[in-house]
Write a structure and sequence with these properties.
- In the C-terminal section; belongs to the class-I pyridoxal-phosphate-dependent aminotransferase family.
- This is DNA-binding protein.
- Keywords: DNA-binding, Pyridoxal phosphate, Transcription, Transcription regulation.
- It holds the Pfam family GntR.
- By secondary structure, the protein is an alpha/beta fold.
- The protein folds into three domains: about 80 residues, Orthogonal Bundle (Arc Repressor Mutant, subunit A), CATH 1.10.10; about 240 residues, Aspartate Aminotransferase, domain 2; about 120 residues, Aspartate Aminotransferase, domain 1 (Alpha-Beta Complex).
- About 45% of the residues lie in helices and about 10% in strands.
- It is built from 17 helices and 14 strands.
- The strands form three sheets. Strands 3-10-9-8-7-4-5-6 form an eight-stranded mixed beta sheet, with helices on both faces. Strands 11-12-14-13 form a four-stranded antiparallel beta sheet, with helices on one face. Strands 1-2 form a two-stranded antiparallel ribbon.
- Strand 1 and strand 2 form a beta hairpin.
- Helix 3 packs across helix 4.
């Protein structure tokens, strides 16, 4: 392509009335011509004056384009000689054509190509992902009612802090997070959750996922074994498997996880890590008995096992006081306590915390700063003021009453429609309950049909390690559902359930 053709080529493609500046248009078009070979390596570009005259644009525009092309390596400029297209073609000796080992690979569908691009752990993560396409609505589990968040109070506290414009709140967070927040959280956790900790033991994170990820990265190696509850929270499973740990599911019963069962089966192969939800098992809702808590702690002490205690929504217990934490019983420094403010305030806050054993505090502080370069100090400062002002305690108290009311309304709707035919489980605490289904039911199919009908639920089977051992049921979150929507939304869900149960009965017959 010579000079005259370049000018003509550009002239037919420039849009004089476009919002995109002329400089950006010319630059983009010349780059495209070089990358596609329409301007071959070694081609001399016209002088800036000539190209500007031919295109009827300012010469400074062309000079700016040439300067940018030179800076990015598209062209080479030599004083007194001119501007030439650089040879940027791939080195054929370094880049060899891919050889397809199977005839079907070259024309494989896009989805299977993406699947093949993933690592083994990537395929495992995506294949068992539990994240939902919608995060709000009846009956989305684990979501608080964000419309009840005291936004005016929060805005007032935030405005005052922004007005002060403390530069220390606009930089990276120190290892462990904002100290006034850590002090406020340590006081709150001692009173509300019977956690034994000092402010120095608090590490601020973006939530339970990051807290677990940090603990796993610092305390385990690829191939180490981890105990998880069966069933368990899908997010914990994803974090552990993505780190290369081998998971060993331990069934839960009415007293929670039983450490004796697996310890007797494998006395010489203790795990490196155990992840538990002792105060409100997720998703079934039982409380780990005191005897099993003490057994697990003693086993961890004797075998150097780390325990990650996920205390995700234990503030919301109905009919009794919140159950004390497992960490409060730990005298050997084996429990890493993790929690989040998302379930209490609003999920988008993305502030969580972990309580590290005293001898690991410096290690965890360094780890969180090195891996994640934490920030959000302004949000942490607002949250500290929110807690110290007593607003968190009053908000939890108010939401506990509201969620308890909605919980009872949902239970009443279930009983009214199904009586005792479908059991209700895990309703003593938290933000959801489990509606049991017959073993013959396909809870995944019910979930998909309910979604099409405008109702969000989660299949209980998805929380198990395998379909063979999975119980059938639906997780129904009631916290984010307005009172007047609980009845109509459940009627819609009930019709879906009845259709599937009757179709299953007909198929069995």
């Amino acid at each position: 392509m010579d000079t005259i053709i370049l000018s003509d080529w550009l002239g037919t493609r420039l849009e004089r009335d476009a919002a995109e500046p002329m400089y950006r248009q010319v630059l983009r078009l010349v780059q495209h011509a070089i990358l596609t070979g329409q301007l071959a390596p070694g081609t001399k570009l016209p002088s800036s004056r000539t190209l500007a005259d031919d295109l009827d644009i300012a010469r400074n525009t062309v000079l700016r384009v040439y300067d940018q092309l030179t800076a990015e390596g598209y062209v080479l400029s030599t004083t007194g000689s001119g501007t030439y297209v650089a040879d940027t073609r791939p080195d054929t000796a370094a880049v060899r054509p891919r050889v397809f080992t199977r005839a079907s690979e070259a024309g494989a569908p896009e989805e299977s190509r993406a699947h093949r691009s993933l690592s083994t752990r990537g395929r495992r993560l995506i294949g068992r992902a539990g994240v939902a396409p919608k995060q709000w609505g009846a009956f989305m589990p684990g979501v608080p009612d964000v419309t009840e968040f005291p936004s005016r109070t929060w805005s007032r506290l935030q405005a005052r802090l922004w007005k002060e414009a403390n530069p220390d709140l606009l930089t990276y967070a120190p290892g462990g997070g904002y100290r006034p927040l850590r002090r406020a959280l340590s006081d709150y956790l001692r009173v509300a959750r019977s956690v034994k900790c000092s402010p120095d033991q608090i590490i601020i994170t973006t939530g339970i996922h990051q807290s677990m990820d940090l603990a796993v990265r610092l305390l385990t190696d690829v191939g180490d074994r981890a105990w998880v509850e069966e069933p368990c929270y899908w997010g914990a499973r994803s974090v552990l498997q993505s780190a290369g740990l081998e998971l060993e599911p331990i069934p839960v019963d009415s007293e929670g996880l039983n450490p004796r069962e697996l310890a007797q089966a494998a006395p010489h192969a203790p795990p490196r890590l155990a992840v538990v939800t002792p105060s409100h098992q997720y998703p079934l809702g039982m409380v780990m008995s005191l005897a099993r808590r003490r057994t697990l702690l003693e086993y961890a002490r004797q075998h150097d096992v780390w325990i990650v205690e996920d205390d995700y929504d234990s503030e919301f217990r109905y009919g009794s006081r919140p159950i004390a934490s497992l960490q409060g019983l730990d005298d050997a420094g084996r429990v890493i306590y993790v929690g989040s403010l998302g379930k209490i305030l609003y999920p988008g806050l993305r502030i969580g915390y972990m309580v590290a054993p005293e001898h690991l505090v410096d290690t965890f502080r360094t780890g969180v700063a090195e891996l994640y370069r934490e920030g959000q100090l302004m949000h942490q400062a607002v949250l500290a003021e929110f807690i110290l002002g007593g607003y968190l305690t009053s908000h939890v108290r108010r939401m506990r009453a509201l969620y308890g009311e909605r919980r009872q309304m949902l239970i009443d709707a279930i009983t009214s429609r199904f009586g005792d035919a479908l059991p209700v489980m895990g309703d003593e605490a938290g933000l959801h309950l489990v509606l049991g289904l017959p073993d013959s039911a396909d809870d995944r199919a019910v979930t998909a049909a309910a979604f099409e009908a405008g109702v969000i639920v989660r299949p209980l089977a998805a929380y198990y390690s395998s379909e063979e051992v999975a119980r059938r049921g639906l997780l129904l979150g009631y916290a984010c559902v307005p009172n007047d929507r609980i009845g109509p939304a459940f009627e819609t869900l009930a019709r879906v359930i009845e259709q599937h149960l009757s179709a299953g009965a007909m198929h069995a017959a």
